[in-house]
């Protein structure tokens, strides 16, 4: 997956990774605790976290210094999950998604679990993000 800096359609700021598709139906939701906010459309999901007990990996060279890095994880409809490099946020994107509930679009599904938000694509790749830890798979 080649990453480039593009204009994020949601906030007009830089985002390393895919930009939401113009005109796409974007669904926003948060974890019941409000600590995780996600945006989902047919091509990708992005979940950001407000408070965490872990550190993201080192900032990649292609992530500009004027953006944040590691505040969230994104996943396209195919391929592996990656950390967000962006100046915007997915926090407060929508109503709480109760534990055990699922949001899905375009081959991506996210499940709200007591242990964190779990999102996966049809390739079987994805991520889990929580205050305590993250996992990319």
Tell me what you see in this structure.
- This protein is mostly beta strands.
- The protein has one domain.
- Helix content is 0%, strand content 42%.
- A 7-stranded antiparallel β-sheet has the order 1-2-7-6-5-4-3, with no helix packed on it. A 5-stranded antiparallel β-sheet has the order 8-9-10-11-12, with no helix packed on it.
- It is globular.
- The two termini are 15 Å apart.
- Keywords: Signal.
- This is Secreted protein.
- InterPro entries: DUF6636.
- It comes from Mycolicibacterium austroafricanum (Mycobacterium austroafricanum).
Portion in strands: 35-45%
Anisotropy-based shape: globular
Query: Could you say how many structural domains there are in total?
Result: 1
- The Rg value, from CA coordinates, equals 13 Å
Question: Would you summarize the structure shown here?
Answer:
The chain has 137 residues and is an all-beta fold. The chain has one domain (5-136).
């Amino acid at each position: 997956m080649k990453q480039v800096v593009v204009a994020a359609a949601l906030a007009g700021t830089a985002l390393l990774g895919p930009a939401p598709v113009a005109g796409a139906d974007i669904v926003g939701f948060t974890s019941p605790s409000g600590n995780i906010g996600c945006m989902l459309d047919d091509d990708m999901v992005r979940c950001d976290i407000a408070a965490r007990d872990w550190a993201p990996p080192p900032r990649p060279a292609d992530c500009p210094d004027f953006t944040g890095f590691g505040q969230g994880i994104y996943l396209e409809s195919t391929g592996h999950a990656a950390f967000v490099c962006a100046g915007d946020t997915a926090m407060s994107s929508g109503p709480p998604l109760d534990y055990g509930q699922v949001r899905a679009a375009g081959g991506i599904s996210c499940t709200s679990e007591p242990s964190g938000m779990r999102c996966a694509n049809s390739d079987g790749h994805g991520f889990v993000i929580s205050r305590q830890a993250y996992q990319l798979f």
